[in-house]
Amino acid sequence: MYGSIVTIGNFDGVHLGHQKVISTVVSLARAFLIEPLVVTFKGHPKFLKMSPEARYLLTTHDEKIFLIQQLGIKHIEVLEFNETLMQMGVEEFLHYLKKNFNMQHLVMGFNHHFGRNREGTPEKVSRLLNKFDFYLTVVPPVFLREQVISSTLIRDFLKEGRVEEAAKALGRLYTVSGVVSKGKGIAGDLGFKTVNITVHENKLLPGNGVYAVEVLYGEKILKGVAYIGKSPTLGLGEHRLEIHLINFNKHLYGENLTVNFVKFIRAEKKFASLEELTQQIRKDIQKANSILSLSG
């Protein structure tokens, strides 16, 4: 093999738009018998701003790498996203790609930007093809109904609890993974055993409310109902992800679980009494079980 076909991007979420770009790289590499390469970043531009949101990522670094590999990419070059990289000009970055990876062909999404001041647009790059001796393919957008699929669109869906629409844009259910940590045991006192899950500090959680979820535990897929919020009825104040596993009673402290968000059930609410809360939790469990039985 001689040279490489390259695409560059943060690829947070590895959504359907990203998948189209990466599959184009793989197809061209097969056609021209050269190596497909994804250049991505560790860290996110969001975190270099003055007041980054605490939770922003659709995929952790490890999740992103795994998803890219699943698309047929063996060579992934990970660059640390820092101020030095942010200040690298377009021509300097193209020279880096030519020198280090013998780039013969660059694949870009229609609205992708790279380099200092985001000046590396497809239009700008197209004017540098002869100077740096490579080809350029620009991949058109992917739409969900009339909206262009993007990481920002998916974040907005999730913040609003619209997990089904997020799943359509991702091409899979939205997933959160983490370790089971010890909670306060209040749900157990109400008659509902739950697990509290500690997730990556920058991983975006869907908006506050109750959801039907699938929970991956080892090789098992368990039905569950998830609550995200601060428990206004109980006055706990701590934002958390708490899950009741339907018809499953094993202790899971310290275990790693993966949660797939299937459907939004209801918004967070402050109830007038613990009895009213208990009645609503029973209804939530019944509804989640019904949803998951149909989806399964």
From TrEMBL:
GO biological process: FAD biosynthetic process; FMN biosynthetic process; riboflavin biosynthetic process
Catalytic reaction annotation: FMN + ATP + H(+) = FAD + diphosphate; riboflavin + ATP = FMN + ADP + H(+)
Protein name: Riboflavin biosynthesis protein
Pfam families: FAD_syn (PF06574), Flavokinase (PF01687)
Pathway where it operates: Cofactor biosynthesis; FMN biosynthesis; FMN from riboflavin (ATP route): step 1/1; Cofactor biosynthesis; FAD biosynthesis; FAD from FMN: step 1/1
UniProt signal peptide: none
InterPro entries: FAD_synthase (IPR015864), Riboflavin_kinase (IPR023468), Riboflavin_kinase_bac (IPR002606), Riboflavin_kinase_bac/euk (IPR015865), Riboflavin_kinase_dom_sf (IPR023465), Rossmann-like_a/b/a_fold (IPR014729)
Membership in a protein family: Belongs to the ribF family.
Domain Riboflavin kinase: 169-293
Keyword Nuclease belongs to the record: no
SUPFAM superfamilies according to UniProt: Nucleotidylyl transferase, Riboflavin kinase-like
EC number: 2.7.1.26, 2.7.7.2
UniProt source species: candidate division WOR-3 bacterium
Protein keywords: ATP-binding, FAD, Flavoprotein, FMN, Kinase, Multifunctional enzyme, Nucleotide-binding, Nucleotidyltransferase, Transferase
GO MF entries: ATP binding; FMN adenylyltransferase activity; riboflavin kinase activity
Database matches in NCBIfam families: PRK05627.1-5 (NF004162), ribF (TIGR00083)
